[in-house]
Amino acid sequence: MSTQESALRCLVVVPTHNEATNIEEILARLHKHVPEADVLVVDDASTDATRTLARAALRPNDRIVERETKSGLGNAYLHAFRIGLAEDYDLLVQIDADMSHDPVALPTMLAVAQHGVAVVIGSRYIPGGSVVGWPRRRLWLSRWANRYTAVALGLAINDATAGYRVYRADALRSLNLAGIQASGYGFQIEMSYRAVRSGMSVVEIPITFRDRVAGESKMSRRIVVEAFQLVTWWGINDVVTLRRRRRAYRTLDQATQPDSQ
Ligand SMILES: Nc1nc2c(ncn2[C@@H]2O[C@H](COP(=O)(O)OP(=O)(O)OP(=O)(O)O)[C@@H](O)[C@H]2O)c(=O)[nH]1
Ligand SMILES: [Mg+2]
């Protein structure tokens, strides 16, 4: 790694809602595996000891934002991205607090981003990646949601719902974050979709994803339905736009034929 590359500043965003059983361990593992990165915990309305435990575990350059309303994962990340961009971080990391995403993979993901890749996804569904501990039904749902997303949106991404990511700050700046619609899984898909549509490089790195062993899931049927509806809507929109473009090109083409004048 060159001196210039190693000087890139990295902010790791950890969203939390009632993660008292996990927050100390995820912070300890982040400090161990990426000691040079700063950590930003975005806590939404936790009613357990998450905030107290986080505050005690944070290092001087780390911090916690405490919000009183549970506003969804996407909203928490957008809030954190605004802070990270305003403070001129070069790389912004998304990681769940529930230990599903092991910080051990982060140095590799950061190295890929440091070499110029706009979005690095910690992927479960490429060779070398895996899911440990999910019931068959949950795995099936996630696999098919990703296949459907890839086909509907024409994305060559195997794990577009993945929440373990590194974004280059320059990429985030050009993504019009204010226009993001989705809040749950849909948020991860929407960010992937926007990145690909903007011509950015997106690279998947295999990770081992572990089902949470402690704390409660915040996943809901509403989040899954939101993602499905948005993907379907964007897919239909793409087809309609493509047809319109084709019609416009045909009209232009006919108008410029010599015998049409
Ligand atoms: N700040 C904030 N964090 C949230 C919110 N909802 C979920 N989280 C956090 O986002 C991360 C992912 O949420 P999870 O509940 O693990 O959802 P999931 O990973 O899709 O599903 P499971 O792992 O099965 O529970 C965890 O760190 C949660 O604490 C929210 O509204 N605001
Ligand atoms: Mg989880």
Describe it.
The protein is α/β, with parallel strands linked by helices. The chain has a single domain, classed as Spore Coat Polysaccharide Biosynthesis Protein SpsA, Chain A. The protein is 45% helix and 16% strand. It is built from 9 helices and 9 strands. The protein has helices at 3-6, 23-33, 50-57, 73-86, 106-114, 136-153, 169-173, 185-197, 221-255; strands spanning 10-16, 38-44, 63-67, 91-94, 119-123, 130-132, 165-168, 202-206, 208-210. The strands form 2 sheets. Strands 3-2-1-4-7-5-8 form a 7-stranded mixed β-sheet, with helices on both faces. The chain has a two-stranded parallel sheet with strand order 6-9. Strand 1, helix 2 and strand 2 form a beta-alpha-beta unit. The longest helix has 35 residues, at 221-255. The N and C termini lie far apart (61 Å). The protein binds guanosine-5'-triphosphate and magnesium ion. Residues 96, 98, 100, 212 line the site of magnesium ion.
% residues in beta strands: 15-25%
Strand arrangement within the widest β-sheet reads 3-2-1-4-7-5-8
Kindly report the average pLDDT value.
Answer: 92
Remind me, CATH topology? Spore Coat Polysaccharide Biosynthesis Protein SpsA, Chain A
Uncertain segments are 1-5
CATH superfamily: Spore Coat Polysaccharide Biosynthesis Protein SpsA, Chain A
Distance between the termini: 61 Å
What best-fitting shape do the alpha-carbon axes yield? globular
